[in-house]
Amino acid sequence: MKIVKDANPVLMVVGIFFLAALVFGWISLALVLLGLFAFTRYFFRDPDRQIPDTAKGILAPADGVILEINDVQMEDQQVKQIVTFMSIFNVHINRIPFNGKVLSKKYFPGKFLAADKLGIEKENEHMEIMLETEFGKMKVVQIAGLIARKIVCGLTEGERVAKGDRFGLIKFGSRVDIYFSDKAKLLVKTGQTTSAGETVLAEF
Fold first, then answer.
1. Which domain holds residue 145?
2. Could you give the CA distance from residue 46 to residue 12 in angstroms, rounded to a whole number?
3. Is 191 among the domain residues?
4. Averaged over 109-132, what is the pLDDT?
5. Mind listing the pLDDT tens digit for each residue in 143-202?
6. Residue 36: which residues within 8 A CB-CB, separation 6 or more?
7. Is 87 among the residues known to form the active site?
8. CA 20 to 30 Å from 61, out of 83, 113, 152, 172?
9. SS3 string of 85-120?
10. Are residues 32 and 73 in the same domain?
11. Is residue 48 part of a domain?
């Protein structure tokens, strides 16, 4: 099973404590650490995805369950907001929803309220990525949750990106919001499960 390199420091620390527990004969602790090692590998798994061949489709940026679909304002424009909650059991690799260019990447420190709680998008720690696409601006927001304590985003301003590209992750449970023009036809509904880079959320 392929895993992301962000798992390596955690796996190394857990592995060292596991070996130490074996050396000192702490079998119960060793078993707990072995389970933690296995879960860490599972959490940081990075499966390949079949990117749909759709020129006008907006792809899901995250695995999870759609909590909300809202009509909101973004820079004085009416847009759709789709809120996706990722539990600790979801794949946490985030992917680019549409071809374009990274206009900006802004980090905002904040609280660590539960990610499935509504209205936390401005309170919790988050990373906002603004993309310029042929159909206007599109925004993806990585939001930390109750357990999540680190947002990873490998994008740089001015970078060209393609739909389905991996761009980051949020460690241990979180939420990802996407904002796009309301001119796109919505193809999903609340309660639906999404797969990053595979599920088509909407289409222009």
1. 57-203
2. 18
3. yes
4. 82
5. 987 765 678 899 999 999 999 999 998 877 689 999 999 999 999 999 999 999 999 999
6. 14
7. no
8. 113
9. EECCCCCCEEECCCCEEEEEEEEECCECCCCCCCCC
10. no
11. no
